[in-house]
């Protein structure tokens, strides 16, 4: 597609960055950050944020930090940290030595909280969580001030320190910002800044018994790191006044928060909670199940970093809420693999073909093109013999009018080999076709018939005695409904029972016996495939289908590409 090459007009975030660079607002600096919480694996929605944050920094000669927003020890884990690091690197981005953690800032965050207490801008509240919720009010009704709101500074300081030291049970007290219980923005009604959690933290262990909440930790982390443009998704728009309030009250360096719309894809669930449930309850085989929208799942399925980055650049960045068609993601991977993938032949549902007039025991090597899109990828030899496998679907004993592939008496071309004509159909006692007998025309080797006669189809094949047997896993969308869980039902009710089909008697050209994971292939006419990095072994390959081909060459009329 040429949309890659077209000069893109600036999205609204890049326009703001250019304006700020022009006015010298941050001294000509651009500093962004990607702030995942290590409570799950990254998914394609995160890729949008990664491409935006790292991409914009790169384009403007700035920096992008990777910051783990690890303020909730109950849900976080080093397994997630490691997977996130791997995934961002794999996407092709780099943070040099700027790998940070919100937990690096627990001490300054605490010190700033003490400062707010001393300025009478924060207080320890001893209402229960339920009471706090009740007192908060509603969208139409103002909240009610807590009876603890006017606690003396000394008492607040003492309680807060004892909260930190672990003297209280979870829920006994919280620290709240003292803002405005009647604010029209509920986020401003004395939001909680700290809560007591007795769970050990994966990095700081038992050193802290209180943990800051996102809204408080995030703006200060941004400030400490000297972020210029703090890019986040739209649901934080209503939190921006709070982001600004903390930084202004503390009088510290103030980045600018800008919100953009998150990526939604149809036929896909993107909520971390749902993705976690699919994994934990075994609806899929782990975080990197190739049907998952996780980066690790997409990688295992055969998606390339370029295909994901191109997808993110195609969807762009706006403030408009929308649902992107998952076929656009599939288009991006096809487009990329079309340029990169080696063409090979593989038969998924084999049907034996015996060429009755071929010299007994003879083998020859046919020249095959590795990628018609890229001559530099060269050619290879594919062995041919008198016993072959073709795709069961490519034969019909009693074909309808528009079926141009093999049928009794009909001639087709074998890709890179010969014209063959079916003379006999062999069946077992149940009437199942077990074998075809064909004749070949030795004059048609590697191309066309010297007498100019045409065939209407070209089909793929493998030589029976040379082929390697493989397992091939065909994936389809994980959900049958474009909006899983819409209409009130459980999103799991529309799990697609056919999202994984395993074929274990596939026959592939012999060069694929040692195929390495991480390499993409096009099985001609069938789609793009890649070896499974866990289950594929030398000599007994297991392939994942990345995506089907949109266009096939089934119906080309008498010409090879
Ligand atoms: P939660 O915070 O509920 O755990 P999250 O999806 O926000 O879930 P984070 O780890 O906080 O997960 O996300 C890190 C960054 O990725 C955030 O800046 C977030 O805005 C961004 N992000 C998450 N989901 C999407 C999405 N679907 N589209 C674009 N950006 C996203
Ligand atoms: Mg988040």
Write the layout of secondary structure elements.
Layout: H1 12-23, E1 31-34, H2 44-59, E2 63-68, H3 78-90, E3 99-101, H4 106-118, E4 122-125, H5 129-135, H6 153-164, E5 174-177, E6 192-196, E7 210-212, H7 214-224, E8 229-233, H8 240-250, E9 256-260, H9 272-280, H10 295-301, H11 305-315, H12 326-340, E10 342-344, E11 346-347, E12 350-355, E13 363-369, E14 379-385, E15 387-391, E16 411-414, E17 419-427, E18 433-441, E19 458-459, E20 461-463, E21 468-475, E22 500-508, E23 521-523, E24 527-531, E25 542-547
Helix pairs in contact: 2-11, 7-8, 11-12
The structure holds adenosine-5'-triphosphate and magnesium ion (MG).
Report what the structure shows.
This protein has 561 residues and is an alpha/beta fold. It has three domains: 23-260, Rossmann fold, CATH 3.40.50; 272-342 and 470-560, Ribosomal Protein L25, Chain P; 346-460, Ribosomal Protein L25, Chain P. Helices cover 24% and strands 23% of the residues. It has helices at 12-23, 44-59, 78-90, 106-118, 129-135, 153-164, 214-224, 240-250, 272-280, 295-301, 305-315, 326-340; strands at residues 31-34, 63-68, 99-101, 122-125, 174-177, 192-196, 210-212, 229-233, 256-260, 342-344, 346-347, 350-355, 363-369, 379-385, 387-391, 411-414, 419-427, 433-441, 458-459, 461-463, 468-475, 500-508, 521-523, 527-531, 542-547. Helix 11 (305-315) packs across helix 12 (326-340). Bound molecules: adenosine-5'-triphosphate (ATP) and magnesium ion. Adenosine-5'-triphosphate (ATP) binds next to helix 2 and strand 8.
């Amino acid at each position: 597609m040429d949309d890659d090459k077209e000069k893109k007009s600036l999205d609204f975030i890049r326009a703001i960055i250019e304006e700020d660079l022009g006015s010298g607002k941050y001294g000509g600096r651009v500093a962004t950050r990607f702030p995942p919480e290590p409570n799950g694996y990254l998914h394609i929605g995160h890729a949008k944020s990664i491409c935006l944050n790292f991409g914009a920094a790169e384009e403007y000669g700035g920096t992008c930090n990777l910051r783990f927003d690890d303020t909730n020890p109950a849900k976080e884990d080093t397994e997630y940290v490691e997977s996130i690091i791997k995934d961002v690197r794999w996407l092709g981005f780099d943070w040099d030595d700027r790998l940070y953690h919100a937990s690096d800032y627990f001490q300054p965050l605490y010190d700033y909280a003490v400062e707010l207490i001393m300025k009478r801008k924060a207080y320890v509240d001893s209402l229960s969580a339920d009471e706090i919720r009740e007192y908060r009010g509603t969208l139409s009704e103002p909240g009610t001030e807590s009876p603890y709101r006017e606690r003396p500074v000394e008492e607040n300081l003492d309680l807060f320190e004892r909260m930190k030291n672990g003297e209280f049970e979870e829920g006994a007290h919280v620290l709240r910002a003292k803002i405005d219980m009647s604010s029209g923005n509920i986020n401003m009604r004395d939001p909680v800044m700290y809560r007591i959690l007795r769970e050990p933290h994966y990095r700081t262990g038992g050193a802290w018994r209180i943990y800051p909440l996102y809204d408080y930790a995030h703006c200060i982390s941004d400030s400490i790191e000297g972020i210029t443009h703090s890019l986040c998704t739209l649901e934080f728009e209503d939190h921006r006044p709070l982001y600004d309030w903390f930084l202004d009250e503390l009088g510290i360096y103030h980045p600018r928060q800008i919100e953009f719309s998150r990526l939604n894809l149809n036929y896909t669930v993107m909520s971390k909670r749902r993705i976690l449930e699919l994994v934990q309850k075994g609806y899929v085989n782990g975080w990197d199940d190739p049907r998952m929208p996780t980066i690790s799942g997409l990688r295992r399925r055969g998606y390339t970093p370029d295909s994901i980055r191109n997808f993110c650049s195609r969807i762009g960045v706006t403030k408009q809420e929308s649902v992107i068609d998952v076929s656009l993601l599939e288009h991006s991977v096809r487009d990329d693999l079309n340029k990169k993938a080696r063409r090979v032949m593989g038969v998924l549902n084999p049907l034996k073909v015996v060429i009755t007039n071929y010299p007994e025991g003879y083998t020859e090597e046919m020249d095959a093109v590795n990628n018609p899109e890229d001559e530099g990828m060269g050619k290879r030899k594919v062995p041919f013999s008198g016993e072959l496998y073709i795709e069961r679907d490519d034969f019909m004993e009693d074909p309808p009018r528009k079926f141009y592939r093999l049928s009794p008496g009909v001639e087709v071309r074998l890709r890179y080999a010969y014209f063959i004509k079916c003379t006999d159909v062999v069946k077992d006692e149940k009437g199942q076709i077990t074998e075809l007998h064909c004749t070949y025309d030795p004059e048609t080797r590697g191309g066309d018939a010297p007498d100019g006669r045409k065939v209407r189809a070209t089909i793929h094949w493998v030589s029976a005695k040379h082929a390697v047997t493989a397992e091939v896993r065909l994936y389809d969308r994980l959900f049958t409904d474009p909006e899983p869980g819409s209409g009130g039902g459980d999103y799991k009710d529309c799990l697609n029972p056919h999202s994984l089909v395993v074929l274990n008697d596939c026959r592939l050209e012999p060069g694929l016996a040692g195929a390495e994971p991480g390499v993409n292939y096009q099985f001609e006419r069938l789609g793009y495939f890649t070896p499974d990095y866990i289950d594929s072994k030398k000599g007994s390959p297991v392939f994942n289908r990345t995506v089907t081909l949109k266009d096939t060459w089934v119906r080309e009329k008498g010409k090879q590409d």
